[in-house]
Amino acid sequence: MDIININLKLQFSGHESFSCKQFWLKKGYDFVSNNKSFNNEEAVIDLGVGKNMVNSIRYWCKSFNIINEKDDTPTELGNHIFSDTGYDPYLEDIGTLWLLHYNLIKKNKASLYSLLFNEFRKERIDFTKEHLHSFLKRKCNEDSSINYVEKTITTDINVFFRNYASPERKAKIDIEDVFSNIFLDLELIHQYKKIGIDDKTEDWYRIGSEKRDNLPSEIVLYSIIDNYKDKTISFQQLLTGINSPGNIFALNADDLYRHLINISNRYTNIIYSETAGNRTLQFKEQVNKWEILNEYYR
């Protein structure tokens, strides 16, 4: 099993228990682009939210690599997506959501997401919240610099599910608020009920390796260029390697193959080869990831 080489220590919490709303990243980007500070008391007025939500917007903008960690200035990715002339400032294209999903995991500020897609899914693709909690507790205990706090991990897990999974429609929830959570349209998580111990019904979740019909091949290519520096990359690396498209987008082998064929057919300087049974993706020359996105959004 691949083990993540984490340059930063594992990080949990920071979101103030709020999931990321679709409009928050644009709101946070515009805020810092106007040279405003999250630390200013007037931030609650400028952003139109409470103090805890101000902190949460800042956290999510950093976790998605929209603003820089050290000085709260816009990143190159932030400028490309959320400027007034950006690719998709209001997140109307499903490809942008996949792009943000990739960057959230690759950034690894919110460690749960990287650990889940790069490691946990290799242990099980069907799981309960308790399974995920036990896994994260084990990872914390393996890192001497991290203090395991049950409440913190539980909150992180609940926020994760609110970001990705559609809730049951109950009278007590704010439907409009809940369905503005950022990744519901990706449909990465399948929910179902299962009879457990003592004949009690349990909530189970599945993130299987599947065909992703709404995932653009250009976003897959962007992730490959961003994640790998080698000119030749094996199919297995692309399927199961750390931050690989196979891991992050939860692709099965057939769908990864489909994307690689699409890429090689479209770009003459990128070749998919199966010579002597050795499947590889080869770059004849360096490809600019921003040019790939420029073509996609054009």
| Alpha carbon gyration radius | 20 Å
Uncertain stretches: 1-7
Shape: globular
Helix tally?
Answer: 14
Strand count = 6
Structural class: mainly alpha
Strand content: 5-15%
List the secondary-structure elements in sequence, H or E: HHHHHHEHHHEEHEHHHEEH
Distance from first to last alpha carbon:
39 Å
How much helix, percentage-wise, in residues? Answer: 40-55%
Which oligomeric state applies?
single chain
How is the largest sheet built, in terms of strand order? 1-3-2
What is the average per-residue confidence, as pLDDT, rounded to a whole number?
A: 92
Largest sheet: 3 strands, antiparallel
What does this structure look like?
With 298 residues, the protein is mainly α. Among the domains are: 109-208; 217-297, Winged helix-like DNA-binding domain superfamily/Winged helix DNA-binding domain (Arc Repressor Mutant, subunit A, Orthogonal Bundle). It is built from 14 helices and six strands. The strands form two sheets. The protein has a three-stranded antiparallel β-sheet with strand order 1-3-2. Strands 4-6-5 form a three-stranded antiparallel β-sheet. The radius of gyration is 20 Å and the shape is globular.
